[in-house]
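Please, structure for the following, as tokens.
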Amino acid sequence: MKQIFTVTGMTCGHCEKAVMRAITQTDPKAEVIIDRSVNKVEVQSDRPREMLAQAIAEEGYAVAA
């Protein structure tokens, strides 16, 4: 299932990697596309949205509903 998150606070490539790592640790099979210029994180995953959002938030990034 495709899920799109608005994630603020990503300012560099390291930030993108941290968000990517948080998602793939939650779902190793997830496909992730990040466009930090528009604060968009697109995730193809069967995991619940709340679980993915929590993983991102635990890395220190704000996730809009």
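The chain has one domain: 2-64. The radius of gyration is 10 Å.
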